[in-house]
Design brief:
By secondary structure, the protein is α/β, with parallel strands linked by helices. It contains 12 helices and 10 strands. The protein folds into 2 domains: 260 residues, Spore Coat Polysaccharide Biosynthesis Protein SpsA, Chain A, CATH 3.90.550; 71 residues. Strands 1, 2, 3, 4, 5, 6, 7, 8, 9 and 10 form a 10-stranded mixed β-sheet that branches. Helix 6 packs parallel to helix 9. The radius of gyration is 25 Å and the shape is elongated. Bound molecules: uridine-5'-diphosphate and magnesium ion.
Length: 349
């Protein structure tokens, strides 16, 4: 195992003989799970390393939990984490990473859009000293023109205004060293825009390009509204630039207002003041009213974020964990709740 990883933290998980953990978030992925499992295990067994497969069921409503339990009882390399409900991909990833024991952790989508065959290449980069191996999409087969274009422009915008450099065209497909995992666990915010968090921690990063495949089976869990929401979350989680923009435009509007007033008053003094100007008055009121409401809404967005952070709720709740085919004693895990790891176990029965 990587000596650096071994020495870095006194708190190395007990299972640290595991060299690689592969974290897979699953939400209603019944159609693809068997294929995904087969392709991943083929790659992993060929590598001849100790590995574990962390399958996180994000409150699926189809046959996914059953399929995961079935696999976990057959294959001792599987750690199955069942969340108490659907918490969303970002929370599912957090759960997976926190339950992973490997010296290196690979995050991969269940739908095989990220080819598992690239894992050996990622491991090589890690062995050569990278703490983060970031996979950049050279192409995105099977995605609509609109999705590709909007993703492209979103990353450009985000990078221009955000506090950290979030590499363009990268997804959640990546490898994290144990050091990077510990770093990530210190970021205990509830609003988890993972791509931003990954970028925030820094550390030596290697970028590998790959061709993104179409989904192997099943349907995407994102609609445009969901993606728009994620994009907005990304921006407001990593930048206060919108607030500054609003302040700037407020300043500009006030300045224009002063100039306009000066002009109106001068005109009234020189030419008298017949009753007119209704259209200009109305347009000013509606425009300014709109801008004000928009600004208040934006402020509210940041305030709302603070509200959620202040609640200090856990990012996710675990219903059950299967390790080596056996259910982990949840009550013990519940009592061992650590303040660093924000995982919490629901009190059962
Ligand atoms: N996913 C999840 N929880 C959710 C939505 C999605 O765990 O609430 C998982 C999903 O099962 C898949 C990955 O996140 O493994 C990516 O989802 P999807 O393929 O639908 O997104 P896309 O590739 O279209 O961006
Ligand atoms: Mg996908």
């Amino acid at each position: 195992m990587n000596a650096l990883v071994e020495n870095w933290h006194p708190d190395i998980p007990q299972d640290s003989h595991i060299e690689l953990s592969v974290v897979v978030p699953l939400y209603n992925e019944h159609e693809v799970i068997t294929l995904m499992y087969q392709r991943l295990t083929t790659v992993l067994t060929e590598l001849a390393i100790t590995y574990e497969l962390v399958l996180v069921d994000d409150g699926s409503r189809d046959g996914t939990p059953n399929a995961i339990s079935h696999l976990a009882r057959q294959d001792p390399n599987i750690t199955a984490v069942f969340l108490s409900r659907n918490f969303g991909k970002e929370a599912a990833l957090t759960a997976g990473i926190e339950h992973a024991a490997g010296a290196a952790v690979v995050i991969i989508d269940a739908d095989l859009q990220d080819p598992p065959e690239l894992i050996p290449q990622m491991l090589d980069a890690w062995r050569n000293g990278a703490d983060v191996v970031c996979m950049r999409r050279r192409s995105r087969a099977g995605e609509t023109w609109l999705k590709r274009a909007s993703a492209h422009h979103f990353y450009r915008l985000l990078n221009t205004i955000s506090d950290v450099e979030i590499p363009a065209d990268t997804g959640d497909f990546r490898l994290l060293s144990r050091k990077a995992v510990y770093a990530l666990q210190q970021l205990n915010e509830r609003n988890r825009y993972m791509k931003g968090l990954f970028a925030w921690i820094g550390l030596p990063t290697t970028v590998i390009e790959y061709d993104r495949m179409p989904r192997a089976a099943g349907i995407t869990k994102w609609d445009y509204l969901g993606l728009l929401n994620l994009a907005f979350q990304g921006i407001t989680s990593f930048s206060t630039a919108p607030l500054r923009f609003v302040m700037g435009s407020g300043l500009l509007t006030a300045l224009l207002g002063v100039l306009f007033t000066l002009w109106i008053v001068t005109k009234a003094l020189l030419l008298g003041d017949p009753v007119q100007g209704y259209p200009s008055l109305i347009s000013m009121i509606t425009i300014l009213g709109g801008v004000q409401l928009l600004s208040i809404g934006l402020l509210g967005e940041y305030l709302g974020k603070t509200y959620y952070e202040a609640k200090q709720r856990p990012v996710y709740l675990v219903r059950d964990v299967l390790k080596r085919g056996k259910s982990v004693d949840n009550m013990t895990a519940y009592k061992n709740f650590s303040s660093i790891k924000k995982e919490t176990y629901a009190p059962f029965r």
